[in-house]
Amino acid sequence: SKAKLFDQNTDVKVSFKDVAGLEGAKEEVQEIVDFLKNPEKYTALGGKIPKGALLVGPPGTGKTLLAKAVAGEAKVPFFSLSGSDFVEMFVGVGASRVRDLFKQAKEKSPSIIFIDEIDAIGRARGKSNFSGSNDERENTLNQLLTEMDGFGTNTNVIVLAATNRADVLDKALMRAGRFDRQIFVDLPDIRERKEIFEVHLRPLKKAKNLDTDFLSKQTPGFSGADIANVCNEAALIAARNGKKAVDKQDFLDAVDRIIGGLEKKNKIIT
Ligand code: ATP
């Protein structure tokens, strides 16, 4: 396969101001930013810098965005891969892919490794609904555990992983010295939705009648990703109608469209 083994971004532009709401989660990852910027400050006192943290929460709530923002704030390279890619693209090379990823991240340390959808490789052993061979998945998981145990406290690589199914993860992943911190990234409440709207309205040409209090009231249950979609969809609807600015009606139409899409998605799942 010619597919990339993992992604590497040495100049991440995302910062905490791109992440709306999530005050608690941002506070927790701020500590990781400090570790990455000033490891000596912590190790000098004999402390052990954490190796990993698990970002737990529903789809589209900003877990990937938050992980990127950690790299952006600390100005360190961001190495990432998605657990689901293992299933689809890399049969037979999962373990070596993990090995290469950690090797690169160590060479470029301080750095962040981000593993999205870690449940695809980190499901409790023997309880998998993995479509490929179970041995393959276990080899990959074992390699990940080996790598995390292998690097010392002065390696300055922090591994962030995201999941919306922490309950299915192999307990071995959560042991001390691995992903021993969990950071919850929940769906936004009304106040947080307003903040997310403010972020995603920034690039749009807005009509005067736009009111973010109103928009956040219209979107209960929406994730940050849903809100980003609404904003983009509203801009496309306005353009299609030949408008010079995106107005309230365009947003209402976009909300309807996204709700329609969400309902369809839920029907497929149930
Ligand atoms: P998944 O579990 O589906 O991978 P995720 O939790 O990693 O989702 P992201 O990929 O980070 O979610 O979010 C997708 C997009 O939604 C982001 O790139 C951003 O545009 C928007 N978004 C989500 N949450 C927020 C937020 N808190 N603030 C601003 N934008 C957000």
UniProtKB/TrEMBL annotation:
Residues annotated for ATP binding in this entry: 57-64
Highest taxon above the source species: Bacteria
Domain called AAA+ ATPase: residue spans: 49-189
Locations listed in the record: Cell membrane; Membrane
Subunit structure as annotated in this protein's UniProt entry: Homohexamer.
Described function: Acts as a processive, ATP-dependent zinc metallopeptidase for both cytoplasmic and membrane proteins. Plays a role in the quality control of integral membrane proteins.
Family: In the N-terminal section; belongs to the AAA ATPase family. In the central section; belongs to the AAA ATPase family.
Protein name, per record: ATP-dependent zinc metalloprotease FtsH
Record lineage: Bacteria, Pseudomonadati, Bacteroidota, Flavobacteriia, Flavobacteriales
Full protein: residues contained: 182 to 451 of 660
